[in-house]
Amino acid sequence: MEVKFNVRRYDPESTDAVSHFQEYQMDMDDSSTVLDGLIRIREEVDGTLSLRCSCRSAICGSCAVKVNGEAGLACNTKIIDVLSEDGNTVTVEPAGNLPVIKDLVVDFQPFWEKIRAVEPWLQPEGEEPETEYLAPDEDMLHLAGVVSCILCGACVSDCTVMEVDSNFLGPAALAKSYRFVGDPRDDSAQQRFKTLNEDGGVWDCTRCMKCVEVCPKGVAPMDRIMALREQVMEAGYTNTNGARHAFEFSNSVKHSGWLDEKKLVVKSFGIFNIKAMIGLIPLAIRSQRAGKVPPIFHKNIPGVENVRRIFEKVETKK
Amino acid sequence: MLDHDILIIGAGLAGMRAALSAKELGADVAVVSKVHPVRSHSNAAQGGINAALTDRGDDWRDHAYDTIKGSDFLGDQDAIALMCEEAGSEVIAMEHMGAIFNRDEEGRLGTRAFGGQREARTFFVADFTGQALLHVLYEQILKAGALVYEEWFVLSLIVRDGKCGGAVIMDIRSGKIEVVRAKAVILAAGGLGRVFEPSTNALICTGDGMSLGYRAGASLMDMEMVQYHPTTLKGSGVLISEAARGEGAYLLNSENDRFMLKYAPEFKELASRDVVSRCEQTEINEGRGIDGCVLLDVRHLGEKYISERLSQIRELAMDFANVDMAKEPVPIMPGMHYQMGGVKANVDGETGVPGLYAAGEVACVSVHGGNRLGANSLLDTLVFGRRSGVHAAEMVKSIQHLNVDDSAADDDKNNIQKLLANDKNESFGQIRLDMGTAMKEHFGVFRDEKGMLEGIEKIESVKKRAEDVYVADKGSIFNTNLLFTLELGFMVECAESIAVSAADRTESRGAHTRTDLPDRDDENWLKHILVSQDEDGGHELSYKDVVITDWEPVIRQY
Question: Which of B55, B103, B142 has the CB atom closest to A140's CB atom?
């Protein structure tokens, strides 16, 4: 099939170094991947095209790029699955949220620094046993779902928080942290929770699901971040906006059957947090103007008992 | 000029294991790798790592014998015994560092069966054991604070009076070239799969380390022994782990016949790899294949079991062959997978060139001989990676740096200028493809004299053309075009040494099967072939007897 590859190019050494799209018309097999196309371009058409790739089987994590605006591995993305509506174009760009070095090659340094920041190594306590540590198979199988992360950066590329907050540890590093928190052999969970609870940690995720969507290995980073939030709170780290937000959210629904948004905001920041309260005033005014202020009196919904019963059931189950 | 006690080339399992053991002993260690450590090809090992644990009722001697038999008695028995004896402690060390491993009901390490072995002694993490171990070692590198030159390319080794004293390296990101002075250099740069087309190997497996060692005066040994893996996907040639057969998969021909029952009544699908690949190729050649393939069938294992233990390969088959293994058999064929040969090294990694060590696939100790058992490669990398690191760390304590300065980079700088200025029009992609296709055709599962001589001629012509490659990219930053051209030089040299070694071995043994000389010849060929560079830059062949300790060669049956 005839495919038009629309590839974003950038050459830092050229006199007018601006990024631009370049088109390559290629005749590809129906079974070809985007990576097959890129490799053929650089081997047959244009040797100056730079990209990282190695294993061709979705295990080395080198070739994460944006295909039609969404991150994924070029090597396991079939062209036929991503052709544009007019039937013949594929757009390839470098991964997002990381500085571009050249063409499709991005600078992974910020990525590795964040991985490093979660102290990604097993930290057991006490003497090593003579043989292996004993650990239940189901725990290990569960961890296998996170250990299978290949650190390709697809989740970081498309993370909507990292786009605006470079301080956020991000989905890959947090999933990596979960891998140790969830390991029965690791004894440093308390220490790890402390870091995870800080700014840039688990509470900065907005639950947009993007990382879950684009992960080529089914690691589901956001689910791991949510699990970490629960564990952080269970460990007693409740004095954060995020933890208070979660508590008040569930309290409000349990109490009245629906969300009391005024109270949620105030409780999340803490009523005595004068600075935050003052900071909310412009928001309140804007909401008022837009007619979006919730009712002053928050009434229970009819049948609220049923909602409470659901809560009781879930809580006893836990 | 940069300065280190030990410079390790390659950041896969062997390289990082060497770095950790040397650093533990207080040496100033640096690792240089052309890709970030977690991108290394150790990733691709799917099935597991072998070890005979005594507390499981297994015996390292049994593991050793299975390995020796697997090698078709070309492996050196003293080295094999040592590797098998140390296997248990290496696996346990990896577990202590954090490797998760699948477990048994008591929470201890669980095993699966693998080819050519009488016991199930393969420890595993689902079907991505290599990736799991590679990431654990990277974690330990971070913990230890070991220095890694990430995305630096090694241009040459520095040799003075026959001794190795460092390397010339290039920062891929900037194009900057640096001299690294080191009292010891450990080659841990992996294999050469890209010399063949197709290959299961990653695009980075271009024989750099073997060629660097060869140019520095070391010998290449057992180069004719190239492993064809029995189960690679039709079309793309992507690897489907032996774990599939370890878990009970069948191999079927076009008549729906489990043909391995006929060839290997005892081990069936789990005979050693050279045997299974030959049987498949025979079925295909005799007209019982389907489009040049046979079928791998796991359907009887059930969907749940498949998704628990073989999830990655199920995904691979879906992504790359459009087949759901749980519902249909997968078309597979033998595909080039591993180089048993490499830079001749002893059990401490010493190559014979003072200051130069080698470990992992780049090396030939020789523990794999004519054919490597599945799940022995990870073991090889860890045992000999660790030992090389330890030996080098001890050795550097008592020696001085060689007299090396920045001028050591002059030749490489000139060479690169020459390549960039070349106005000829050969393309590295086409040359590599021609070389790879020739290697597959003439040095494949079955070989004969006429074919191999033809192959040698083709490689000679490829070598000439490789001098005229046009490098389109003239820049300094991430010039992958230039890197591929440099890699092509390494690959051609590896191809040549495979070809001349293969043509020299006038018998069939292990992966080297000659249709014109089908028998094993123990009388004349219980020896390794070594290739080294003579004074005029040509090949010189020599021989070394196989070390036989407790196990006399017998006819191999599975």
Answer: B103
Instruction: For B120-173, write each residue's pLDDT tens digit.
Output: 999 999 889 999 999 999 999 999 999 999 999 999 999 999 999 999 999 999
Distance from CA of B115 to the nearest CA of A (A): 23
Q: Where in chain A is the domain with CATH 1.10.1060.10?
A: 109-234
* B157 within 8 A of B356, measured Cβ to Cβ: yes
pLDDT score for B501: 98
DSSP character string of B477-540: TT-HHHHHHHHHHHHHHHHHHHHHHHHH--S-BTTBEESSS-S--HHHHSEEEEEEE-TTS-EE
| Cβ-defined contacts of A220-226 (< 8 Å, 24+) | A220/A145, A221/A149, A221/A155, A221/A171, A221/A172, A221/A174, A221/A175, A222/A171, A224/A146, A224/A174, A224/A175, A224/A178, A225/A171, A225/A174, A225/A175, A225/A178
What is this model's ipTM? 0.95
Whether residues B478 and A42 touch (CB distance < 8 A) is answered with: no
Beta-sheet pairing, B177-187 with B163-171: antiparallel
pLDDT (tens digit per residue) in B181-213: 999 999 999 999 999 999 999 999 999 999 999
Query: A2-106 has which CATH code?
Result: 3.10.20.30
Q: Mutating which of A14, A15, A22, A60 best tests the B interface, going by the most B Cβ atoms within 10 A?
A: A60
pTM (2 d.p.): 0.96
AA letter at B269: E
Of B35, B132, B235, the CB nearest to A147: B132
Q: Does B479 touch chain A (CB under 8 A)?
A: yes
Which residues are B153's β-sheet partners? B170
How many angstroms separate the CA atoms of B77 and B220, rounded? 19
**Measured between CB atoms, does B422 come within 8 Å of chain A?**
no
A109-234: CATH number: 1.10.1060.10
Cα–Cα separations (whole angstroms), residue A263 to A271, A291, A299: 9, 18, 13
How far is A230 from chain B, CA to nearest CA, in Å? 24
Band the pLDDT of A144: cuts 50, 70, 90: very high
Number of Cβ within a 10 Å radius of residue B363: 33
Total tally of structural domains belonging to chain B: 2
CA angle A39–A41–A46, rounded 5-degree value = 125
